[in-house]
Amino acid sequence: MLDILYKDHQIFALNKPAGIAVQTDKTGDPALQGLAEAYCKQPLHAVNRIDRPVSGLVVFAKTKSAMTALTEQFRSRSVEKTYLAVVQNPPQEPEGTLVHYLRKNEAKNLAKAFTEEQPGTERAEIRYRLLGSSERYHLLEIQLITGRHHQIRAQLAAIGCPVKGDVKYGFRRSNRDRSIHLHAWRIAFDHPVSGERIRLEAALPKEDPVWLAFSGML
Fold first, then answer.
1. What is the mean pLDDT of the chain?
2. What digits encode the pLDDT tens for the residues 25-81?
3. Overall number of domains in the chain
């Protein structure tokens, strides 16, 4: 069952559940792109990618020209990308901007964050805002400014706020389903043909009690 958020002759957008890869990886498990292509009965081009344990918005282009136009919007940073993250430790300030320099470790499939530029690093920037708190956890809204490998996960971990369930980045235990509490919530971009501003929102995972507890704060 695909959770379809938008479709026309140029674009196909879905709400990806945690646990499925966007594209086929070394596991050989079924991937979202293959399922979407079977539904659309045509090849698709992934415009954005989110990590396997992350849920939320994934946009595919149906044509090469749409892919080119959307990729250029990502490159020029005109695409608005908003995530939600559940963390155990609140940041020191209720809102702010984080700038780090990330170095990707291919062998371990993770990114290390540095406060100063280092050889082989890329600048990474996010803006965050504390939306609410429960007895144990805190909900952050994240505006993604750059698009680096594991950027949100690495940057939040670097300030002592690893995402719930993200043992790779320092959270003390994994979630039972091996998901992490990071959700690609909203995206806004210009339609590659009409130029209309398209704004999409992906609902939070319905069966998760932690997401359910925070849903009333949105």
1. 95
2. 877 788 999 999 999 999 999 999 999 999 999 999 999 999 999 999 999 999 999
3. 1
Catalytic residue among 3, 8, 25, 51: 51
The whole-number pLDDT of residue 157 equals 97
Spell 88-123 as b/e; 16+ CB within 10 A means b.
eeebeeeeeebebbbbbeeeeebbbbeeeeeeebbe
51 is catalytic: yes
DSSP 36-94: HHHHHTS--EES----TT-EEEEEEESSHHHHHHHHHHHHTT-SEEEEEEEESSPPSSS
Residue 173 belongs to domain with CATH number: 3.30.2350.10
Residue 147, number of CB atoms within 10 A of its CB: 15
Residue 215 structure tokens: 């849903």
**CB atoms closer than 10 angstroms to residue 4:** 12
In this predicted model, what pLDDT tens digit does every residue of 137-171 receive, in sequence order? 999 999 999 999 999 999 999 999 999 999 999 99
Terminal Cα distance for the chain, rounded: 26
111: containing domain = 4-215
